[in-house]
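hey all, quick one before standup. I had two proteins in the batch that finished overnight and I want to keep them in one place so we stop losing track of which output belongs to which input. First protein below, input sequence then structure tokens straight from the run.
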Amino acid sequence: MHATPGVAHILITGSELVTGRVSDVNGPFLAGRLSEMGIPVAGITVVGDDRERLTLAIGTLFRAATLVVMSGGLGPTGDDLTRPVLAAALGVPLVAGPERDGRPPYPLPQGGEPIANPKGSAPGIWFAQGGRALAALPGVPWELRAMWPEVARRAAPLFGGATRHRALLRTVGLTEREVERRVRAALERHDLAAVEVGVSAKPLAVDVHLAAASPDTLALAAAAARGALGDHVFTETDAPLAQVVGDALRRAGKRVATAESCTGGALSAAFTAIAGASDYVDRGVVSYSNAAKVEALGVPEALIATHGAVSEPVARAMAEGLLARSHADIAVAVTGIAGPTGGTGQKPVGTVVMALTAADGTFCRTFHHMGDRPRVIQRSVTRALDLVRRHLLGGVAGLERDFPPG
């Protein structure tokens, strides 16, 4: 590998990652944070727990990049693989680190410094030499994320501070292609075509990443993109949609309740995964069977017999029955066919019916979500969250306008 000054490289270690038993979450997190700082990322390398291969990878990457950020291997004891391998790869001896409140010190590569770990017992390692640096961090995601601010503080001077200014717009309800088309067209209209645009898609949601050489240019580009995307933009921070919707419910002083069939509680889980959700979540009912719809929500048996459990009359009755039985201001119901079986010619897999009811009326619509079972469920959760968000913006009338029949 040839030397490429001015870039960072991420090195992820762990045999469980190489075999596919565990998915890497640290690499994408580190790449995102480095990019936010304006530091180009040359790549993400994953290496198993093999001393020889790990030594070669560390030595090669340290010579090739200005910064190497390494995740994995650091444990709470002094006999883990990472420390001696680091020393060997960097060509320095392994020495005792500073005292740790009377406990035996962790060994460090000579010239290395510990990085405090506020969420765990194993400190990280910072090693700098000749204008280059390596940061070794634990593989536990919440420990790594808590240590990142200190790594960022140490890394910034290596690159002369941020070289690009960046903005994020998170959208919901548009395809990746449509989001990119709208943003690029808006930037061209404002003579901002040189601004970097990146999009990354999630089920029913797309993130827009903008980068520019000056904060003024970035502000103009963000405003242009915002105008092109309208109320599909739900935040310009990294907050998830459930948090944004929860914050909006809290500001409005409203509580929500959920009645779920095909999503099996995933919508309620999305709401309650956010700290402080008790401020705005009243209850959730998983009415998976027809009997549960009748007994817990008051859906008439005849309605199910006539229209089927996956139908707009039943979804409407689910939402209205839940609102009448709860202390919520808004009730959301979801019923559908997540697959892979259960679909028909009239109601194929991915058919999902949603209803939202509140003091200003009831909205109900049938959606068709593509993908396998987990994706249909996730798309349905995202759609339901967006319905609540849009109701808070414009009520049932706004939902009828945004999602016309047919």
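OK second protein, same deal, sequence then tokens:
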Amino acid sequence: MQEHPDQPHLPHSMRGSNQSGLRAWNEKLLFTLLHTYGAMPKAEIARVTGLSAQTVSVIIRALEQDGFLIKGEPVRGRIGQPSVPMSLAANGAYFLGLKIGRRSSEMILIDFHGAIRDRAVLRHDWPEPEAARAFALKAAHDLVNRLPQPERSRVAGLGIAQPFQLWDWSDSLGAPQGIMERWRDADLCADLGHHLPYPTFMRNDASAACGAELVFGTASLPRDFVYFYIGFFIGGGVVLNGALHTGDSGNSGALGSMPVRRADGNIVQLIELASIYRLEKQLLEAGIDPGLLWQDPALWPVPETIVHDWLDTAAAAIAQAIVSCLAVIDFKAVVIDGWFPPDIRHKLMESTYQHLLRQNLAGLEPPVITKGSLGSDARALGAAALPLTDRFLIAPDAGFTHSEAKTDLP
């Protein structure tokens, strides 16, 4: 989650209930608490959730027996018995995350702590639905079967982070329109769900990256922020009241479609000026292999002069997009992340802020511009977060009316 105060605190709508029959909610509440704040003794869990000590003990005992929780070393205080912190067992559950990218596809396997345990990568000139399906099925089989035998049944689901409407971008991808058109009728989520023994989920790739920042990110962020992810194309996400807002169609936060003004005065979409594919074109024009950009996100072995020109153009365009966002919602922060080395991200953030200060900000409050914490893994992690949140966590904006009645049952 994006905020980690010293003293755990849950909003009233996320507190537990001691009423009988609500065990599933209370279990999710406990998982959410431990995922967000880390190891915690039973007494503290009871205090934060509002559950009785007996209810907490019953739930923890059951989850420990099921392999989801583990005991830590006793912590001795000044008075009374030592407290025993409980935490999520890393091998208590596993999740698969599939990223369908414009230049590569990737599947990762993460554990209950969100650590990447294994990965498989497929590089391509453009994504094809049949190849994506074959890769996903083989990668899922291989990654799961490399787990110890007793842990293979603990895979709780597969999430997919995929660009929407791929058929609209064949020219930018340099792909045959006929191949991209096949994505129009492809339903990768349903297809994989039919062949795999666990549930599958899908989200737009940039929105998934934003979701990953909420679930796994380490930055301290306000409850309302806008998120830019720069990959082959730029995209983004909108976070309101601590929760990812995707809208009915899943396209909220489609920041790449936002109109911005080029240096020559013409209006284009943000995607034309702040995407890595524009840097690809610059490298091609200079006679340099653009494939160098996709070999290692931690290293771009390309001329600094070309990168500098791309950075300045991208930053100026993103600054315009930020102003448009601020005119709609009073975002307190802007998060920038992407498929590039950390020093490139830092330079992009600094340049974006300088360009933002040159904009007409009358009536607007400049936000803090900060870096994302997940980099090139953000989209795949966002995909893996989908089954994690569905099965184990409570969404920050979840509404819940509970009884204050006290019983001894979970």
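Flagging for whoever picks this up: The longest helix spans residues 304-326. The chain has a mean pLDDT of 89.
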